[in-house]
Write a structure and sequence with these properties.
Blueprint: H1 2-21, E1 46-47, E2 55-56, E3 62-63, H2 79-88, E4 98-99, H3 102-123, H4 133-145, H5 154-158, H6 160-171, H7 174-183, E5 185-193, E6 199-207, E7 210-218, H8 226-240, E8 245-250, H9 254-266, E9 271-274, H10 276-288, H11 291-309, H12 311-321, H13 334-345, H14 347-355, H15 357-361, H16 363-369, H17 388-408, H18 429-432, H19 438-449, E10 460-461
Parallel strand pairs: 5-8, 8-9
Antiparallel strand pairs: 1-4, 2-3, 5-6, 5-10, 6-7
Helix pairs in contact: 2-4, 6-17, 8-9, 11-12, 12-14
């Protein structure tokens, strides 16, 4: 039995090696390739510049005194430095000039990109992820390794390498910690509940150096009262250091008010303040209930829900506007005002749309479709079956990486939410036409404020 098992393992190993050996970037039409161009079969470099006191042979090997290697021509750099150098261009003053077959390199690159794209297509990975700096670092490291790279196993990705990456993120907190000691910091909580009643609370620290993600706690099976929130925040303060914390910022739910009184009693030097964004969100909600404003928002919702309820009309709208009409904001009630502004900005295009011959041709179709259910766009998400500790580490690495990239690229509207497809924002009433009711708001408020409520029945966010 052991012999058979060992033999099967060896067969699998040989099969993997056979498949990998069949990959050849010399030819984009055939996996094996012809390999006729022997001069550039290994992407050899032809040196044109020689150092003083030494010459070069016709094959490109350095001849002269000392070791016949090219190590003397360059200084070893890190992956990040190599990527930056490639993006800035080739520095002639610091490196040896080289000449490659440009056409051959482009053919090889196209073949390599085909394999990369095939992986993205099969794994359903969003295409815009290639703009991440880590993707460029990955390509550079693979190129420096060379052939026969053995990729990480699923265990290594979710275990050792995840812990290594988490430790590197923690090591990068040095500047944050120095800022905490110098100017102090603010501890912020972000609690929300999904549609299945699962509660999650994130702990984030803000300072003069920026924002960093500390921890994510699954509180689905816990009683989310003032004592529970106080314990989480107090533990976070203990890790940071009480002398480094200036204030704690949360929303204005009653459970947070109760936790604030407990914190004041234990740590009187730390302030507990309400979230300004949450206050503004509540103000926008109250403004939206005023008669003229509510009527305007309702009329706008009729227009947008009609446009997004029919695929042919939606396609025609995007043709005239060249973009989506509905916008999505982080605060729920800010979305209404963002969409009102979008309607006003695109007023002329919308008038042209409804007066166009294409829209008139759809009249019979829309009449027949009237009374039927609007086409529902179903979005499914693949959720990893991961333990919460592992998921927490993934969130830790991902969240802090996004925060770092955000600090480096401050060119986005802070109130706008990133949605690849506006139809994916299934909670936007300007698409679903489901106007939030007073009963729904009361249920959401009760889910946050009732200390005895363990599993809310409706989704809410704060």
């Amino acid at each position: 039995f052991l012999t058979k098992k060992s033999g099967d393992k060896q067969k699998k190993k040989d099969e993997v090696q056979r498949v990998r050996s069949a990959i050849n970037i010399e030819n984009s039409d055939d996996e094996r390739g012809s390999g006729d161009d022997s001069d550039f079969e290994r992407n050899d470099v032809v040196f044109l510049k020689s150092t003083r006191g030494s010459g070069t042979s016709n094959s490109g090997t350095v001849v002269g005194s000392g070791s016949a290697t090219i190590d003397k021509f360059y200084k070893k750099t890190s992956i990040e430095e190599s990527v930056c150098n490639n993006q800035r261009g080739f520095n002639v003053s610091q490196k040896v000039q080289s000449k490659l077959s440009t056409t051959k390199r482009e053919e090889k690159r196209d073949r390599v990109c085909e394999y990369i794209c095939q992986f993205f297509y099969e794994a359903s990975i969003p295409h815009n992820t290639v703009t991440l700096p880590s993707f460029a670092h990955m390509l550079e490291s693979i190129g420096q390794f060379g052939k026969d790279l053995r990729g990480p196993s699923p265990y290594e990705m979710s275990g050792p390498f995840l812990q290594k990456r988490k430790q590197k993120v923690l090591d990068g907190f040095k500047n944050h910690k120095e800022s905490w000691e110098l100017t102090g910091c603010t501890v912020m909580t972000d609690a929300w509940t999904d549609k299945k009643g699962r509660g999650v609370m994130n702990l984030v620290v803000h300072s003069a150096h920026g924002v960093c993600f500390i921890d994510s706690v699954d509180c689905s099976g816990d009683r989310k009262d003032g004592k529970y929130i106080f314990d989480l925040v107090d533990k976070c303060i203990e890790e940071i250091g009480e002398e480094n914390v200036v204030q704690v910022v949360t929303d204005n739910a009653s459970v947070n008010v109760s936790a604030a009184s407990m914190l004041t009693a234990k740590r009187p030097s730390i302030f507990w303040n309400g979230c300004a964004a949450h206050c503004l969100d509540l103000m926008l909600e109250d403004l939206g209930k005023l008669g003229p404003v509510a009527k305007t928002i309702s009329s706008a919702r009729e227009v947008t829900s009609f446009l997004y309820a029919h695929t042919r009309v939606l396609d025609l709208m995007r043709k005239f506007l060249g973009k989506d009409l509905v916008r999505s904001g982080v605060p729920r009630f800010a979305t209404a005002y963002l969409n009102l502004k979008s309607l006003l900005d695109n007023k002329k295009e919308l008038i042209r749309l409804f007066r166009s011959d294409e829209m008139n041709e759809l009249g019979s179709y829309l009449t027949k479709a009237k009374g039927k259910k609007a086409l529902k766009v179903v979005h499914t998400k693949k959720r990893n079956r991961l333990l919460h500790d592992m998921m927490r580490d993934l969130v830790f690495v991902k969240f802090n990486s996004k925060l770092r990239n955000k600090r480096e690229n401050k060119n986005r509207d802070p109130i706008e939410k990133e949605v690849d497809d506006v139809l994916a924002d299934y909670e936007n009433e300007f698409i679903t036409r489901k106007e939030p009711t007073a009963e729904a708001d009361e249920e959401q408020e009760k889910a946050h404020e009732d200390a005895s409520e363990e599993e809310p029945n409706r989704a809410s966010s704060s």
